[in-house]
Amino acid sequence: MFVPTASNTDFGRYPVNGSAGAGDLYRTDCAEALTIDTNQLTTWTPVGYTWQAYPTQPAAPGAPPAPPAPAPPPPPPSPEELAQRLYKRVDVLIPNHTVGIGPTKPDETIVKVPQWLWVDDPGPQSASISLLGVTVDMTASIESVDWNMGEPTGNPDQGATEPATVHCTGPGAPAPPIAELPFEAKTWKPECGYTYRWRSIPERTNGRGTWPIQANVHWNAHWQSNTGAGGDIPIERTGSSAVKTWELRVRLVNDPNAPQPPPTR
Fold first, then answer.
1. What's the rounded Cα separation, in Å, for the pair 35 and 50?
2. Is residue 72 in a domain?
3. Based on the structure, what is the number of domains in the chain?
4. Is residue 6 in a domain?
5. Residue 13 domain flag
6. Which stretches in the chain have pLDDT values below 50?
7. Do the Cβ atoms of 184 and 68 come closer than 8 Å?
């Protein structure tokens, strides 16, 4: 049991446990013996003191109120939240792409001759962020490109409209100089390429005279955190161009000095 103490408590004789501040001091008493038959307590002995502090420190009259306790520190952000912040930074670093086709010029593309396809590649784009002990690193790079080549897969003169498409891993590679390629074009094997089948005459191209090219470039932003969390965020970009396709025809003549006919468009 706890018994309130008087002001002349012998603190040198008994230990005092508790914290300082305004409050009440209580003496702790325990029974040395208990008579079970009569259920009566006998011979109580003080064994120490305990301090019960007031819940709040009462302010003196006219004194300003005590300042509020400081707010606890904010919890650390989740790695996923930081990854989304980084994604917004990296996204603005990646422009739309320039489309390349070769080795011939876009207005001199020959049907039945393989062409290389590529988009300009600025290289991996990286960023990092740290906040309240959580760090996230992100690197974005081109993963693949889906090409729409403009001409149909079927015969355009018979109403075919389904566009021809090509899927390539990575950005593709520029065509080597035509002088370095084998003489027979049918042996050319671009890693990412396409061979046109149809001339881009106005009747087939709604009067444009060219096949439109659309490149959908798929980037992947991979992120990793010092917490062990990680993931991937897709980023999409595009590029466009147009090609005029021709057809070459060979005519045998007896006189090598005779005028040659123009190429057939």
1. 27
2. no
3. 1
4. no
5. no
6. 1-2, 7-20, 32-44, 265
7. no
pTM: 0.68
> CA nearest 113: which of 101, 97, 130?
101
Q: Three-state SS for 187?
A: helix
Q: What are the CA-CA distances from residue 82 to residues 139, 190, 221, 228, 235 (Å)?
A: 14, 41, 13, 14, 17
Bond prior to 72 in cis (omega within 30° of 0) = no
Structural domain of 100: 79-246
Whether 215 contacts 239, CB under 8 Å: yes
CATH number for the domain spanning 100: value is 2.60.40.10
CA distance 199 to 107: 12
Residue with tokens 């002995």: 45
The single-letter DSSP state of residue 88 is H
Phi and psi based region of residue 109 (left: phi greater than 0; alpha: psi -120 to 50; beta: remaining):
beta
Q: Residue 159's pLDDT is what?
A: 92
Tell whether 264 is covered by a domain: no
Question: What ranges make up the beta strands (E) of the chain?
Answer: 2-4, 16-17, 23-35, 40-53, 99-102, 109-110, 115-119, 125-131, 134-152, 163-169, 193-194, 211-225, 230-243, 245-246
